[in-house]
Amino acid sequence: MIKIHVAASQQYDVILNKGILSMTGMYVKDALGLQDDPITGKLKNKKICIVTDETVDPLYGRENQTLWRSLTLTGFEVHKYVFPGGEDSKNMETIEELLEFLAAKRFTRTDVLLALGGGIVGDVTGFAAATYLRGIEFIQVPTTLLAIVDSSVGGKTGVNLKAGKNLAGAFWQPSLVLFDSEFLDTLSYDIKLDGIAEAIKAGIIAEPLILDSIKMKRTLDDPDFLMNLASLAIEVKRKVVEEDERDNGSRQLLNLGHTLAHAIEKCSRYKISHGHAVAMGMKIVAIASDRLGWTVENCSEDILEILERFKFPLRCPYSAWELANAAMQDKKIRGGNITLVVPARIGKCRLKTISVNKLEPFISYGL
């Protein structure tokens, strides 16, 4: 078992273990500090809503399956809300429908949501939890490597607007994060790559040991390796979140490659997945930073080598103009400036603020 404690505004544990899904009820009960009814020996009048999508629901969300049984045996009154998967559902319409569902089921401030799925499910559930009755507790049960490595930890929640990605949201920390290594068995190679991209990002930012570990692997079939990789990446995020929870300073370093990744996702109408777009974004930023002399040590060759090792598709199909135009709605734009994350050397990145007028030339250097 791997257990990482996050000391943010709400303190919580991130627990990774094989078979942990069968113990979800117990872990949720303990995390929320709930007590059994002295007569029945079970929880009393405590609702939990599993929020999931149409892809994950048949795998783990049904009444006759492990998660539901664990919650029911613990004494929770279990409800479920399912929405279509994909970025097209990560919007205010889904949030409104979920909030109306909770109201119809008479959820109160003492009840809880449980996000069962990838990053989109986690973002939607967290945002709903932050806004329903001005805030109720929620649990993250990520089912993808990408979600456990990155989005399930740190308290960023939100949805997309037509203008761009994650433009509506809230900071709302979970009460617990649980990840079962058996989830890895259902993930395709490409979906695992999404998580690897975020792990590589964490290594470039602050932990070269991650990159050393990845360099020794040529396949992604070893669950112990992936669990260890996830724990190292979570530790990087934990330290940054504890230092700058509200994303006003050092937490921005976690956005390495993300300004361009979000632009790539938007240009592709979200046909290019987040992790694959992050890999493209990191490649562009690394090459441009080297060519402009912004790095202390040239990084692009090392970064390209590790991305190519796992056969990431790295050729960006969009022009510098298209990417710069798509990035104009990025959250990191303040006034006429945008803050980029650039590598100084492997294991050390820094923030570089430039005029938005210089973004297109910067991208051109990296393409």
UniProtKB/TrEMBL annotation:
GO terms for cellular component: cytoplasm. One of its GO terms (molecular function) is nucleotide binding. Coiled coil: none annotated. Pathway: Metabolic intermediate biosynthesis; chorismate biosynthesis; chorismate from D-erythrose 4-phosphate and phosphoenolpyruvate: step 2/7. The keyword Electron transport does not apply. Residues 195-332 form the 3-dehydroquinate synthase C-terminal domain. It catalyses: 7-phospho-2-dehydro-3-deoxy-D-arabino-heptonate = 3-dehydroquinate + phosphate. The keyword Hydrolase does not apply. Binds 1 divalent metal cation per subunit. Can use either Co(2+) or Zn(2+). One of its GO terms (biological process) is chorismate biosynthetic process. Keywords: Amino-acid biosynthesis, Aromatic amino acid biosynthesis, Cobalt, Cytoplasm, Lyase, Metal-binding, NAD, Nucleotide-binding, Zinc. This is 3-dehydroquinate synthase. It comes from Lentihominibacter faecis.
